[in-house]
């Protein structure tokens, strides 16, 4: 479980995140949505300990991130771009991650198979496509078989097969009791797999409700999209009808 209370982050006079509060429950997929610049990635970075909050607090499974002895067994992060040596193979990269996290090396083969990379385990990651790198990042997040998983745009770069694979992965994890917090722009997948949806705009929480309740607020043939657009209308800093300047 992830519990966030009054979380704020300021960079000088710029308020990136403003008094954000929400929870992500075990056995559930909570999506974090919002326009570019809404503050979603900043929130995820604060959960991961990469950015220090200005105010507020957050707990993971009832504790602070630094209170865990075996962090990778409690929470895994897939935050997009990650540090890697392009000459390392997928196996070497994950072995390095496992050593850092105190996870047995035997976990590497298991997660490579789980994300569908077992056949390219000996290929240098510098030759991976973006979709393959996404799978590798998810594999690293799964190394410790964590109770909680945080993913930032995990579907980016995935083809149709990869998107279907990811859908089965996240729903399967939730069915097994894992708590998932996922930042996404893919409303189709959100509607198919989501349980709860938190929408942010300009650093604030604009909506925090179940997927079914949010869909009920919409209209037309794509009710989730219409509800999302109505909620975020005043938070978008650009429009598609003209230039962005």
UniProtKB/TrEMBL annotation:
Q: Gene3D superfamilies, from UniProt?
A: P-loop containing nucleotide triphosphate hydrolases (3.40.50.300)
- Alphabetical UniProt keywords: ATP-binding, Nucleotide-binding, Transport
Q: Which residues form the ABC transporter domain?
A: 2-227
One short Pfam family name for this protein?
A: ABC_tran
SUPFAM superfamilies named in the record: P-loop containing nucleoside triphosphate hydrolases
Q: Which GO terms describe its molecular function?
A: ATP binding; ATP hydrolysis activity
Q: Which PROSITE patterns match?
A: ABC_TRANSPORTER_1, ABC_TRANSPORTER_2
- Protein family membership: Belongs to the ABC transporter superfamily.
Please identify the protein, giving its name as recorded. ABC transporter
Question: Which species expresses this protein natively?
Answer: Nocardia mangyaensis
């Amino acid at each position: 479980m992830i519990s966030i209370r009054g979380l704020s982050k300021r960079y000088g006079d710029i308020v990136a995140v403003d008094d954000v509060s929400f929870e992500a429950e075990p056995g559930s997929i909570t999506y974090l949505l919002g326009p570019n610049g809404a503050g979603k990635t900043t929130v995820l970075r604060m959960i991961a300990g990469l950015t220090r909050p200005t105010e507020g607090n957050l707990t993971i499974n009832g504790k602070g991130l630094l209170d865990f002895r075996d962090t990778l067994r409690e929470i895994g992060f897939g935050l997009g771009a990650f540090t890697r040596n392009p000459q390392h193979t997928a196996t070497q990269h994950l072995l390095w991650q496992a050593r850092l996290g105190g996870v047995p090396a035997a976990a590497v083969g298991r997660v490579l198979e789980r994300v569908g990379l077992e056949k390219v385990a000996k290929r240098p990651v510098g030759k991976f496509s973006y979709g393959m790198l996404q799978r590798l990042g998810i594999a690293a997040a799964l190394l410790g078989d964590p109770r909680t998983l945080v993913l930032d745009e995990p579907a980016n770069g995935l083809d149709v097969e990869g998107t279907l694979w990811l859908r089965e992965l996240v729903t399967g994890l939730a069915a097994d009791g894992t708590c998932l917090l996922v930042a996404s722009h893919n409303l189709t997948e959100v509607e198919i797999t989501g349980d709860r949806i938190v929408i942010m705009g300009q650093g604030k929480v604009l909506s925090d409700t179940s997927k079914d309740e949010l869909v009920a607020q919409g209209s037309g043939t794509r009710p989730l999209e219409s509800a999302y657009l109505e909620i975020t209308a005043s938070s978008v800093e650009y429009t598609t009808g003209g230039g962005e300047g």
